[in-house]
Write a structure and sequence with these properties.
With about 325 residues, this protein is of the alpha/beta class. It folds into two domains: about 5-145, Glycogen Phosphorylase B (Rossmann fold); about 160-305, 3-Layer(aba) Sandwich (Rossmann fold), CATH 3.40.50. It contains twelve helices and twelve strands. The strands form two sheets. Strands 3-2-1-4-5-6 form a six-stranded parallel β-sheet, sandwiched between helices. Strands 9-8-7-10-11-12 form a six-stranded parallel β-sheet, sandwiched between helices. The radius of gyration is 21 Å and the shape is elongated. The model has no long low-confidence stretch (mean pLDDT about 95).
Length: about 325
């Protein structure tokens, strides 16, 4: 029997890793409200991925108005009211998304799953911030009547990567990450040494990154002749397509590794003291987590040992 709600809003603004981890909840909401009109409110970097995923009937872009821009807040308020939503699933659960609830007049507030005070379906677990994102969101949806939430899954995402000309046998290396958190990065020279090792095994290292990471990819490729750098050339859909064909992926705790793991790629994710895999790591039978308090101390042999003599099955 379909849920009686006919118009649903899902709020998920980012970042990439968090967005990928929310794809399980997206699928669960779609399955629970299978006859409803479901809209996602997100930010521009994730709009195409959201549209391609098949979970939503429409995708709205949030331009994240500043507190000093009242006209834009009023425009957002008008848009939310015009949507006539029966229920909102706030998967962002931030101060900002809480204010979106407060924008609405009390008499016209829809049912709301989230953490903002006064919402109809609060996730009131005081330990929620100590839960893995997947478990936290599953429990939030359970409190709103959705009992089953699948794992993140982007294995069916369509992507034609032929323009990138991937080699017959390749592995993906993701050496970047947030520039303001350098402790989350394995050193470039370690990636270069691993890339040379892969080349000797007949596996082409394909380096992924964007924006300011281009210089890092260039540095690694120069130190490992034969590596292929795709700085700034890949969409999120391309990452999923490459992940399905790669022998494996190795990278830091950064968004693209979440996407590759959700696409089904065998993934080795490197963590330092700067983030806790118990709270935010990709999960799955093809995911291995390696953690060293100081990533510079993580030896290349430790990564090689995880990969085994075959260096993957691709």
């Amino acid at each position: 029997m379909p849920d009686p709600a006919s118009a649903i809003l899902v709020i998920k603004l980012g970042a990439l890793g968090d967005f990928v981890l929310a794809t399980g909840p997206f699928a669960a909401i779609r399955g629970h409200h299978f006859e409803a009109r479901i809209t996602l409110l997100t930010t521009a970097p994730f709009a195409d991925l959201a549209r391609d995923g098949g979970w939503f009937d429409s995708v709205w872009l949030d331009d994240r108005p500043r507190w000093t821009q009242p006209s834009r807040w009023l425009a957002l308020r008008r848009r939310l009211l015009a949507g006539r939503f029966d229920r909102v699933y706030d998967l962002q659960t931030s101060d900002r998304s809480g204010w979106y609830f407060r924008l609405l007049p009390r008499a016209r507030r829809p049912e709301w799953s989230g953490i903002v005070s006064g919402c109809s379906h609060p996730h009131a677990n005081p330990a929620r911030d100590f839960m893995h994102t997947i478990d936290r969101q599953a429990e939030q949806l359970a409190h709103a009547g959705i009992a089953s939430v699948p794992a993140p899954d982007l294995s069916g995402l369509e992507a034609d990567v032929s323009r990138l000309a991937p080699p017959p046998r390749f592995a993906l290396l993701v050496p970047g990450g947030a520039s303001h958190r350098p402790a989350k990065r394995w050193p470039a020279e370690h990636y270069a040494a691993l890339a040379r090792d892969l080349i000797a095994d007949g596996i082409t290292p394909v380096l992924l990154g964007a924006g300011e990471e281009a210089a890092l990819l260039t540095e690694i490729a120069a130190a490992a002749p034969g590596a292929m750098a795709l700085a700034g050339q890949t969409t999120l859909g391309d990452l999923a397509g490459l992940g399905r064909s790669a022998a494996f992926a190795i990278g830091n705790d950064t968004g693209p590794m979440h996407l590759l793991a959700a696409a089904g790629c065998r993934s080795v994710v490197l963590f330092s003291h700067d983030s806790d895999p118990a709270l935010c790591a990709p999960r799955g039978p093809s995911v291995t987590i390696l953690r060293q308090a100081r990533l510079a101390d993580l030896q290349i042999d430790a990564v090689r040992d995880v990969l085994g003599d075959g260096r993957g099955s691709g």
